[in-house]
Amino acid sequence: MAQFQEVEKQSIMHPKPPGLTLHYGTAGLRTNAKHLDHAMFRMGLLATLRSKNTKATIGVMVTASHNPEEDNGLKLIDPMGEMMAPAWEHYATQLANADDLLTVLKDIIEKEAINMSQEANVFVGKDTRSSSARLSQAVLDGVSALDGHSKDYGLVTTPQLHYMVRCQNTKGKYGEATLDGYYSKLCQGVVCYFYDQKLLSVDGANGIGALKVREMESHLKKELQISLFNDGSQGKLNYQCGADFVKVQQKPPTGFKMNPGERYCSFDGDADRIVYYYTDSEGQFHLLDGDKIATLMSTFLKELLEQAGLNLKVAVVQTAYANGSSTHYLENTMKVIVRCAKTGVKHLHHAAQEFDVAVYFESNGHGTVLFSEAAEEKICQLAEDPNINDEKKRAALLLQNTINVINQTVGDAISDMLFIEAILAIKGMSVQQWDAVYADLPNRQLKVKVADRRAIDTTDAERRAVSPPGMQDTVDSLVNKYKQARSFVRPSGTEDIVRVYAEADTQESADALAHEVSLAVYRLAGGVGEEPKPL
Ligand code: G16
After folding, report:
1. For the whole model, what pTM was predicted?
2. Cβ-based neighbour number of residue 276 at 10 Å
3. Which residues are known to be catalytic?
């Protein structure tokens, strides 16, 4: 077959480094950029097969998101803009590691009964890393080797590419598959919301989000005033800035001075995560992470649904990292359904699809809102009903606007920011009032380097370790030493480390527990380098 000859010919230009093994992890492939050329070419092949298989456009985003500048990676996007189906992740890993590429390729074609004469379309985007241009070219080479059509969107945020894929496959029903279409849809949703808000300062993590906030500004009128810092003009991507740094370090990014009481937010390197923060009059730093965002959004939506008289089921999906106070508040005060999913947006998204309206957020600020088709229909019908009272009308229109502002394909820092700002404006709520809704339990996240992170295996939505032997018993006995304590360990799917999470009644206890659990990981799971030191 001519296509296979072309693959063979082209693959010589994208050789696999000997002995290298990659895994399709939490959000795709991710490692040092110098090891990725062959994998990018091969993922171009896989995306083309997936497109033929689904008879729809597939997306490939070249990014390593929150990882350092020297890393890169790729996220594959399925037809409705969601992360690629887990069943295909196995193929991605197989293909990336194949020594005999054609045999693995033919095997996938046979197993999935793919019709190779079916047309294929792949959308490609990239972040601002210096390696992204060459790696996205390798993806495009892979697509053309299998005779697929491609559209290169160039520099876009990850959620923008997810949006484009969904627009294309819904034939424009979701929106127009252009950047202009994206900004217009989001900004059209906010246009009637904003009033009297003070300046919002945005940390762009020196990445793509900064460029795109600039681009969006011309679509906003006076609804929102944004001051952008860490915009990539001098600092390094994700270095001492960005959502991951702020969340994990629990401190402000470098690159600017914070004024007490003002609102700040940080994006991550591909703008699919956002966290908010401020300092109080005593200079104390306060973080409003994904849990606080989920609470704000779900409360707002629940109130609007009640005002609109719509009986729709609202749920919040979190992960094991969710602060215990947030789960307690949502279940006991807000009385919403709460579900716990494994880390990774694909797991949260899937769990959220079971409900009429579901807010899903990871504590790290990755999340969005999903409306079922039936819920959207009910909201739109009500908004157009001439026989309802003003309160119902207002609520229905606000819900309709929310559907436009929200990027329902995946977490989106720009869209989440617009929605959060709208909620604060409508409720006349300051960032301090939002923060005061419930008090977070003090917590700490640490990383432990081990020889092979797969030594740790987990169950129960990653809340319990099943290996190595003795790990969970040790965690349990350490947790028992502290009040209101909880801790768990899990291997990262994006970095070569094990993550440790601990929370307790005081910061000292959370720090001590996190340290003791880190030591246990180091000793039981093959730690490398220096033993973890107390904080
Ligand atoms: C990715 C995923 C997130 C996940 C994060 C950390 O984020 O999309 O769902 O929470 O990695 O994952 P892990 O703990 O397995 O390393 P991003 O923003 O880096 O793409």
Report:
1. 0.95
2. 27
3. 65
What is the Å distance from ligand 1's center to 392 Cα? 39
Shortest-distance atom of ligand 1 to CA 319: 10
List, for residues 228-259, the tens digit of each pLDDT value.
999 999 999 999 999 999 999 999 999 778 99
| Model confidence pLDDT, tens digit, residues 420-463 | 999 998 898 999 999 999 999 999 999 999 999 999 999 999 99
Task: Please report the atom of ligand 1 found closest to the CA of residue 270.
Answer: 18
Asked whether the beta carbons of 43 and 74 are under 8 A apart, the reply is: yes
Kindly give the distance from the C-alpha atom of residue 494 to the centroid of ligand 1, in angstroms, as a whole number: 6
Q: Cα–Cα distance between 267 and 272 in angstroms, integer?
A: 7
DSSP per-residue codes, 356-373: SEEEEE-TTS-EEEEE-H
The encoded tokens of residue 267 equal 């994006």
The answer to whether the CB of 490 is under 6 A from ligand 1 is no
Pick the residue whose CA is nearest to atom 4 on ligand 1: 344
Domains of the chain: residue spans and CATH:
2-173 (3.40.120.10), 182-286 (3.40.120.10), 290-412+428-435 (3.40.120), 443-524 (3.30.310.50)
Asked if residue 362 belongs to a known ligand binding site, the reply is yes
Question: Does ligand 1 have an atom closer than 6 angstroms to the CB of 26?
Answer: yes
Q: Which of 192, 270, 213, 214 is nearest to 237 (CA)?
A: 270
Please report the sign of the dihedral spanned by the C-alpha atoms of residue 465, residue 468, residue 473, residue 478.
negative
CA–centroid distance, 363 to ligand 1, in Å, is 11
Residue 447 Cβ contacting ligand 1 at under 6 Å: no
Q: Is 34 left (phi over 0), alpha (psi -120 to 50) or beta?
A: alpha
Q: How many residues does this entry show for the chain?
A: 535
Burial of 152 per CB tally in 10 Å (0-12, 13-18, 19+): middle
Residue 272, annotated as binding a ligand: yes
DSSP letters for 13-60: TSPPPTT-----BTTBEEEEGGG-HHHHHHHHHHHHHHHHHHTSEEEE
ipTM of this predicted structure: 0.95
Tokens encoding 290: 């994904």
